[in-house]
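Think of the structure tokens as a kind of shorthand, similar to the way a musician reads notation: each symbol stands for something richer, in this case the local conformation of the backbone. In the example below we present two proteins back to back. Begin with the first one, reading the sequence and then the tokens, and try to describe in your own words what changes along the chain.
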Amino acid sequence: MDTIFAEATPPGRGGVSVVRLSGPKARAVLESLAGPVATPRMAALRALRDGEDLIDRALVIWFEEGHSFTGEEVAEMHLHGAPVIANRLAQALLARGLRRAEAGEFSNRAFLNGRMDLAEAEGLADLLSAETEAQRKLAMRATEGELGRKADELRAKLVRAGALIEASIDFADEEVPEEVPAEALDLIEAVRSDIRLMLAGYPATERLRQGYVVAIIGPPNAGKSTLLNRIGQRDIALVSEIAGTTRDILELHTDLRGLPVTFLDTAGLRESSDPVEAMGVARGVQKAAEADLRIHLSVDGLAGEAAKEDDIIVRAKADLGRGAGISISGLTGEGVAELLDLVYDRLRVRAAASGLVGHKRQAEALQRALAALEVEYSTAPEFLAEALRQAAQALAMMVGRVGAEDYLDEIFSSFCIGK
């Protein structure tokens, strides 16, 4: 494979700029710039020279094949964080036959060299895009290989069950203990049960990974935009006494105590002869229906026709007078903290149901495995053994043991350069 390089730190000025090399020429190229570096995984301060030109003085490290992130020879140079230095080093590397890495190419090589499975790679992508503590924890579980270990555990049970069934086929004319097929069926049932539990947690995990959506709905002039501005602590939406000011959907992305939440300010719910406002109302109704949670805001504290059973019903404009139920004032902030407490409590319960499976591709692989196992136990042993093989194949595909080629570009293209 080519030896590749990339700046692993964000471009621009900073304290340090890290340039990473990976491939068969990594050590040789590093030593052509910095001199001999005999001890692997030990940082050394060296002068980087391209011929007589001193590029920089940098910390250099090299990792031998099999002991690096990519599994290849890897070298790192920690430069002073000036773009001109990184650019000058890039010229020297290009002159030595290296090429610039593409997005996600380091991680792609780590996968191809068996340093991570496909589920770990997806977890790494999630970690790089995580914005809240809950997302970070979820991604870390994936990068640590929990899903891969669970898949291997399930496959081991299927292999054991398949071996028992094959034995019953091969030795049908000989004496085989009666408990053998019973053990196989118990193993199949255990795998079925585990897969169902994993799939049951998938919707909650996917929502946590992508972030929750909370829609603020209600009639015009109920204070929806004022509430959004109060939550965001800045002017996001225009506020006016004129009904119908908000026509399109405004979004506020926020970290609610570690949970990723997007609040939506929607157009006031009313009949309108204005076609633009009517489009805004229709779009707001649709987005509210798709949201994970809705805050129904009204001046009388009563639910409108658009309210659903799980809505949070709130009386607005508490600064003008309070009533029964939850009362808030987006203008003064009264009751807003308590409202956010309630939103957090509702979403926290949903987040607690999350599991290991957070990607559609993973869930589809599990569904194929479960479908293969949904066979009658009375079916012929040969067909049952084939069902086990199909299920094991689906589990292997889930973590990229086989058939991963179709997903590589999609997954690694979302990575940054140098990762």
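Once you have a description of the first chain, move to the second and do the same.
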Amino acid sequence: MSIGDVCNREVVFTRKHESVLSAAALMREHHVGSLVVVDEQGGKRIPVGIITDRDVAVGVVALGLDADLTRVDDAMGPEIVCAREDTGVAECVALMRQKGLRRLPVVDASGALIGLVAADDLLELLGEEISGLAAIVARERTREQVRRRAAP
């Protein structure tokens, strides 16, 4: 299964020249804890960063900076790591673990933003898969007990 199959395709984004105040307002409006920061290139949204509610709280508010005068690119993390949509789920988990990331923008072959995957999304997906495997084990036990009762 590829990450493009499971990522959230409704991504809330902002641009790096916007104010942190406007980014925080977008997070509140859309009930999200992060925004993908994009640049427009040839009509495509290319991820250049992520700003999180923690970036706002710790990097702006706690320092006493004016959120209306501070730009998103001054508060966002220094590195952007993306996954291509054809990357496997296990590879994405490994990448997120290696880089210490909870969120990963998903891009198409041209580098354009198509989605976002969060650790929470992957936990839910993997939990469902594990639950399905547990159901198989339980079903097999039941089937075996029925066969034993029917055997002479």
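Compare your description with these statements about the second chain. Helices lie at 3-6, 20-30, 53-61, 72-75, 89-99, 119-150.
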